[in-house]
Design a protein that fits this description.
Largest sheet: none
Radius of gyration: 20 Å
Structural class: mainly alpha
Number of strands: 0
Low-confidence stretches: 1-5, 251-259
């Protein structure tokens, strides 16, 4: 029992080991984020063009997103172990992720349907996306704190910046889906609750941070959240550029002093 508890708490690593672990986690998270975004936005349509049936395309997309999403949240949690000193927070999020993924498995399982209607699964989907949004925003906070502290620029912080930027898009995708679960039709389309809705929300979020027109007649609340997302993502880029220009690498600073 004690060995299990020690695993889900903060890791005791030296500085070099900690930096290596953070770089690995940041990089793996970015890979998973890219795969989730591509699966949500392109997989079903690509399979449909190739002649696959809608049912098979949906099943494959749902299975891939569910699998990648499970890996994604657990790698986020593993990263948090290297960023936070609060073992209560680390263990609490581990419990939340475990329960959330279990509920997600039974709610959006592509092989069997446990619910008679969209309305019957809405409370469970709300919990899943609220859990995901909570985990992502918590990790974003700690990642931003990690990126903008310290003087030395390093590889893990570059990966961390990419991780945060894509996580902004995915976290707002979860937020949009929360609104659509509470008020179906908020995205301007008649969508079935689950990964169909979530995929559209990811598409909408990516168009916002990408500066494109989503061409969706969304509700006023979604539109206002989109403005907040656009401002936040652009502000992050501005702060990141300022960080890169304002705090050069220690070695570069020493060379400049010597000259």
């Amino acid at each position: 029992m004690m060995r299990y508890l020690s695993y889900i708490q903060r890791q005791n690593l030296n500085t070099q080991e900690l930096n290596d672990e953070k770089k690995k986690d940041y990089r793996n998270i970015v890979y998973l984020q890219v795969l989730i975004i591509l699966s949500a936005m392109l997989l079903r349509e690509t399979l449909a063009i190739s002649g696959a049936s809608i049912g098979f395309s949906n099943m494959l997309r749902d299975l891939l997103i569910l699998t990648l999403g499970g890996l994604y949240v657990f790698v986020l949690w593993d990263l948090l172990r290297n960023l936070s000193l609060n073992n209560t927070l680390i263990m609490g999020l581990f419990a939340l992720i475990t329960v959330g993924m279990t509920v997600a498995f039974f709610t959006v399982n592509p092989f069997f349907e446990l619910f008679d209607s969209n309305d019957s699964k809405r409370p469970y989907l709300f919990f899943v996306h609220l859990s995901l949004f909570t985990v992502e925003t918590t990790v974003i906070y700690h990642c931003v704190n990690d990126i903008f502290t310290g003087k030395k620029l390093s590889a893990e912080k570059i990966w961390g910046a990419a991780c945060i930027y894509l996580m902004i898009g995915l976290s707002f995708g979860s937020l949009y889906d929360l609104v659509n679960i509470v008020n179906p039709g908020s995205m301007g389309l008649n969508l079935s609750q689950g990964l169909d809705s979530y995929s559209i929300c990811i598409y909408y979020s990516m168009t916002i941070i990408g500066g494109h027109d989503a061409i969706l007649e969304t509700s006023p609340l979604i539109q206002n959240l989109g403005i907040i997302e656009a401002v936040w993502s652009n502000l992050f880029i501005v702060l990141l550029v300022g960080r890169l220009l304002g705090k050069p690498d220690d070695d570069a600073s020493e060379d400049a002093v010597k000259k």
